Amino acid sequence: MNNFGVQEVAVVVIGAGQAGLAGAYHLRRSGLEPERDFVVLDHAPRPGRAWQYRWPSLTYGKVHGMHALPGMQLTGADDSRPSAEVIGAYFDTYERTFGLRVRRPVDVRAVREGEDGRLLVETSAGTWSTRALINATGTWDRPFWPRYRGQKLFRGRQLHTANYPGPKEFAGQRVVVVGGGTSGVQHLMEIAEVAAGTTWVTRRPPVFRDGPFGEDQGRAAVALVEERVRRGLPPQSVVSVTGLPVTEAVRAARESGVLNRLPMFDRFTPDGVAWDDGRVVAADVILWATGFRAAIDHLAPLKLREPGGGIRVDGTRAVRDARVHLVGYGPSASTIGANRAGRAAVREIRQLLEREPAVAMG
């Protein structure tokens, strides 16, 4: 700590989800010490990051593609337990095992230019001066709420996946589920079992994917996302690239008519939604399964955004500032991608730290 109360470290990690913990693990393996050389700051009140907010009906057995953190497998998990409990406990054990000493809850308010080539990270718990930054804030804190004509006139309830409580709360109600991603499909299938009626609407026709999703398809999907990020465009959702996997449950829901999709409605009415062709659907609830946007507003003072609205990255490094690495952003948003990106980011950061701070500017 310097004379002005600003704490100095070599690296600040923002976010303790999969990406942030992977980055912290590789920082420690590279010889840096938590609290002395780097600090991990997390907005959430307890371990588990976004997983701790998942709805109770999302059991661990329903989780699609959870990849273990580096250096420790998740073993012996009960598939019937809520994923929030299983993964939260796993992250907690991981943090303690590797002594990562995550500080929470800490709200990062802004990252701005400091002195002598350093960055200033301003938070609810004080300010850190750092030579490099791993930003692993994910998307959960920025749910996307679309806006449509007459929305304020609707007398029913509107909620987002971020606030989804599970299906029981919708018993006997007429529910419109908006969104063509995995969450929307999961919500729809379980709500349909208890609701008076469900309607599924999406902006684009959903693309269902039969058969295995192998390494070749995975690489192709990552390449498409990576191309957008390299062009400075906001990352697309994973499902827009990979399609929706057809499980036995999905196949049954399609056959029963639960997954019969309608195009996006044009406006709200006081009692539901309507299309310009005259179609009307009465609804008690609109559930927006419309995804999330990258939580990167705290980086705004650094002016990293491109005209297209995203941050252009080369690997994980922000093209406009070599001190900033975005892990879990764009092509590294998957759990396995976050692990690999954390390792790659630390490799570049170690190279940066071996140079003079003034040279680190991108």
Structure description:
It is globular, with a radius of gyration of 22 Å. The two termini are 26 Å apart. The strands form 4 sheets. Strands 1, 2, 3, 4, 5, 16, 17 and 18 form an 8-stranded mixed beta sheet that branches. A 5-stranded parallel beta sheet has the order 6-15-7-8-11, covered by helices on one side. Helix 1 crosses helix 7 (335-353). With 362 residues, it is α/β, with parallel strands linked by helices. The protein has helices at residues 18-29, 83-97, 182-191, 215-230, 239-242, 248-256, 335-353, and strands spanning 7-14, 38-41, 108-113, 119-123, 126-135, 157-160, 174-178, 197-202, 208-209, 244-245, 261-263, 267-269, 272-274, 280-282, 285-288, 313-314, 317-318, 321-326. Strand 1, helix 1 and strand 2 form a beta-alpha-beta unit.
